[in-house]
Amino acid sequence: MLKIENLHARVEGKEILKGLSLTVNPGEVHAIMGPNGAGKSTLGNVLSGRDGYEVTAGSVTYNGVDLLALEPEARAAAGVFLAFQYPVEIPGVNNTYFLRTAFNAQRKARGETELDSMQFLKLVREKLKVMQISDELMHRAVNEGFSGGEKKRNEIFQMAVLEPKLAILDETDSGLDIDALKQVSEGVNALRSPERSFLVVTHYQRLLDYIVPDFVHVLADGRIVESGDKTLAHKLEEHGYAWLAQHGEPAGAQA
Amino acid sequence: MSESAVPFVASTLAVPPPSSGIGWLDEARRENLAAFGEAGLPDTRVEAWKYTALRALSQRSFIHGDAQAATRDIDPEAFALPGLDGPRLVFVNGVFRGDLSDLSALPAGLALRPLSQALAQDAEPLRFALARRYKERGDAFAQLNAAQAVDGVVLRVAADAKIDVPVRLVFVGVAADAELAWHLRNVIELGEGAELTLVEQHVGSGNARQLGTLVADVVLRDGARLQHIVAQDASADATLVHRHALQLGARAQALLHVLELGGALVRHDLQADLVGNGARLDTRGVFVPRGRQHIDTQLAIRHQALNTTSDSTWRGVADGRARGVFRGAILVAPGADGSDARLNNKNLLLSGSAEIDTKPELEIYADEVQAAHGATVGQLDERALFYLRSRGIPLAEARTLLTAAFCRAVLDDLPNATLREHLASLLAIRLPV
Ligand SMILES: Nc1ncnc2c1ncn2[C@@H]1O[C@H](COP(=O)(O)OP(=O)(O)O)[C@@H](O)[C@H]1O
Ligand SMILES: [Mg+2]
């Protein structure tokens, strides 16, 4: 599904990703952990096509196509979804209207029929139940005045509606209390399927108690330095990221 | 170069002010024209015209009035507002068109007719408005208008009359063989406790390279309430200079919504005097210059009585090589204690060559005044754009969505839903993509 090879990327002239390789198969959940500033968000931004990130070497293949050649909206239509670490407030744009516009734009790009507002509302109602989001949030402007937790839940709610094939969750757990963390995790788990893959970026092991990953990778200084199963997350939690430095050579994960 | 050698001034002075047979009126016309002839068009050293250069206009000559205006073929679709029936007065190239107007079945308490008719019947009630001499250096177009306008609208609402249908004033500009100039003068008065919704539309068709001036006095007696919509969507080649001077008596309330969309060069002076205790003025507006348009809005609000309130929300969106100008001047005069004055102007530049100059001015000479004043100029939020695109919304659509959202606050509180929808869709059509 996703094959990242030797990816190098720069931001404002500074090299952040320094030869990152990673392969994700359909249905797999990969956790990416790492210290602040390691390049986790940079990876998510590069994969979703944000401006200002210059790829200087390497490749990203997604379902057989060169992902890096696509505009952000085309990546979305192809099934890539980024849950933002810092969701953006958009005053004046109604949350439901925004989501329907996005939903239909993706359908249109894929040559599928669009839903009218009644049909879409029905879909939203069903998904709201699963996500335990109050429909009051749907009447507000996108993320405007949302609490930190509401913003994160809104990201997962959008994911539930848009049904991507590859979801990248960038520190969706940060700023959540334990109840919100459980709700968000339930929402994510409900979407797990043999066709859908996840990249779960997190700083803490805690989230992975609820969203149990198939693989855990450690991203440090722009590279995957360690890969393993879910027990790796516990080791990190125990020993801290400093432990990695003493712990052998950087590993080119699953190259 | 002497002023009369300037083509614009020379072509204007070549036409003597029309004679009305009314002594005081002819005298006012002569004096205003003389004042204009002496000073000519202001240059950018005049503060009120600092950002709007009239050099190009001054080199053009205009024919006064359109002799064929009465017979020009007009498609009423150009100004149709389905679902909003009511009286209307329509002018084509500055000339009243009874065939396009509807003055049948005027509601009780509403007097509405063309200025020319009102003057012919009884000029005296108009004396205060029409005998005025404009003396400010920035008043050139008002002088010209006072000298040359022979028609316009006279609208009066009787005390306590609540007019429940909107009244429409429609100004149509259509292409003529020559570049022509027209001038219209509106005199509007709401009696004590009267209520009215007024919709002013400027529409254009074809390349109407014309100059139009419109000067309106709007007086609200104590306790009167006015909702006033100005939807300016003039022809892309038109030069339009319009001025509204409002006066609000005690507890009078005016709610204005202004869309400035059309025209090549547009200047709008919006002046309001809150002269009665407890008067309230709300203004909402958006100006959207695109291409090479130049749209200049000058808002001047003077609080002159106790506990008066003004609240103004304006948005500017400029694209291409267009230029927007906004001046929001609020004065709280000595004695206007307990007043509340708020003004907020946000502007959006959609291209690197577009420009918006905004100048908030706040002067307070009274006590216990609440005031908030802010103006910004910025670009579309890149983070928001990426957020929308990351969800699958194509770039062009994402830009349109954000631009429309930026303007939303302006129409939100327009009470008449039908009217709100009309204005929203007009705005949507005119917003750059
Ligand atoms: N838009 C940007 N402009 C400048 N520097 C950036 C930008 N984005 C990321 N960086 C830098 O790149 C490095 C990695 O950042 P990031 O990918 O956000 O790390 P993480 O998400 O792992 O905490 C940091 O040093 C950060 O300062
Ligand atoms: Mg990050």
Automatic annotation (TrEMBL), chain A:
<keyword id="KW-0067">ATP-binding</keyword>
<dbReference type="GO" id="GO:0005524">
    <property type="term" value="F:ATP binding"/>
</dbReference>
<protein>
    <submittedName>
        <fullName>Iron-regulated ABC transporter ATPase subunit SufC</fullName>
    </submittedName>
</protein>
<dbReference type="InterPro" id="IPR027417">
    <property type="entry name" value="P-loop_NTPase"/>
</dbReference>
<dbReference type="GO" id="GO:0016887">
    <property type="term" value="F:ATP hydrolysis activity"/>
</dbReference>
<feature type="domain" description="ABC transporter">
    <location>
        <begin position="2"/>
        <end position="246"/>
    </location>
</feature>
<keyword id="KW-0547">Nucleotide-binding</keyword>
<dbReference type="InterPro" id="IPR003593">
    <property type="entry name" value="AAA+_ATPase"/>
</dbReference>
<comment type="similarity">
    <text>Belongs to the ABC transporter superfamily. Ycf16 family.</text>
</comment>
<dbReference type="Pfam" id="PF00005">
    <property type="entry name" value="ABC_tran"/>
</dbReference>
<dbReference type="GO" id="GO:0005737">
    <property type="term" value="C:cytoplasm"/>
</dbReference>
<dbReference type="InterPro" id="IPR010230">
    <property type="entry name" value="FeS-cluster_ATPase_SufC"/>
</dbReference>
<dbReference type="InterPro" id="IPR003439">
    <property type="entry name" value="ABC_transporter-like_ATP-bd"/>
</dbReference>
TrEMBL record, chain B:
<protein>
    <submittedName>
        <fullName>Iron-regulated ABC transporter permease protein SufD</fullName>
    </submittedName>
</protein>
<dbReference type="Pfam" id="PF01458">
    <property type="entry name" value="SUFBD_core"/>
</dbReference>
<dbReference type="InterPro" id="IPR037284">
    <property type="entry name" value="SUF_FeS_clus_asmbl_SufBD_sf"/>
</dbReference>
<dbReference type="InterPro" id="IPR011542">
    <property type="entry name" value="SUF_FeS_clus_asmbl_SufD"/>
</dbReference>
<dbReference type="InterPro" id="IPR045595">
    <property type="entry name" value="SufBD_N"/>
</dbReference>
<dbReference type="GO" id="GO:0016226">
    <property type="term" value="P:iron-sulfur cluster assembly"/>
</dbReference>
<comment type="similarity">
    <text>Belongs to the iron-sulfur cluster assembly SufBD family.</text>
</comment>
<dbReference type="InterPro" id="IPR055346">
    <property type="entry name" value="Fe-S_cluster_assembly_SufBD"/>
</dbReference>
<feature type="domain" description="SUF system FeS cluster assembly SufBD N-terminal">
    <location>
        <begin position="25"/>
        <end position="169"/>
    </location>
</feature>
<dbReference type="Pfam" id="PF19295">
    <property type="entry name" value="SufBD_N"/>
</dbReference>
<dbReference type="InterPro" id="IPR000825">
    <property type="entry name" value="SUF_FeS_clus_asmbl_SufBD_core"/>
</dbReference>
<feature type="domain" description="SUF system FeS cluster assembly SufBD core">
    <location>
        <begin position="178"/>
        <end position="406"/>
    </location>
</feature>
